[in-house]
Amino acid sequence: MNVRVKPVRWQGSDEAIRAVQVAFDVEEAVLEAVRTAAFDQHVSTSDQIRQVLGLATTSKPKRPRLTVSLSGADYEFLAKRYGLAADDRLAIKERATRDLIAFASSGKKSTGAGKPGRK
Questions:
Q1: What pTM value is reported for the model?
Q2: What is the per-residue pLDDT for 8?
Q3: Tens digit of pLDDT for each residue in 25-66?
Q4: Long-range contacts (CB closer than 8 Å, 24 or more residues apart) made by 81-90
Q5: CA 77 to CA 44: how far, in whole Å?
Q6: Under a CB-based contact definition with an 8 Å cutoff, are residues 76 and 86 in contact?
Q7: 42 FRET partner, CA 20 to 30 A, in 2, 36, 69, 86?
Q8: Could you report the per-residue pLDDT of 68-115, keeping only the tens digit for each?
């Protein structure tokens, strides 16, 4: 039997691989309280939950980013909106990033124009 030794740079990820994501089914008021506290403290909701539960949080700075899951249909919609090819995902991401920046700088809190309906 051939046993492979993990490279040193991968050995630190063992604990993260064994971690389990836990979802809490709570009332809207709890969601809002946790999200508001996280926003006010400039931390992720995950870090806010860890703080509430008395768990350790990482002190290393995280890259600020927003995430969203996009389906093939979402890419097709955005490609049409931006006049791009649906398979040019990098260009679509760049245009979407510009829309988010414009949203933040305009002070608007709208959901955007021409959005598809909820599924």
A1: 0.56
A2: 75
A3: 999 999 999 999 999 998 889 999 999 999 998 776 667 778
A4: 81/114
A5: 29
A6: yes
A7: 69
A8: 999 999 999 999 999 999 999 999 999 999 999 999 998 766 555 555
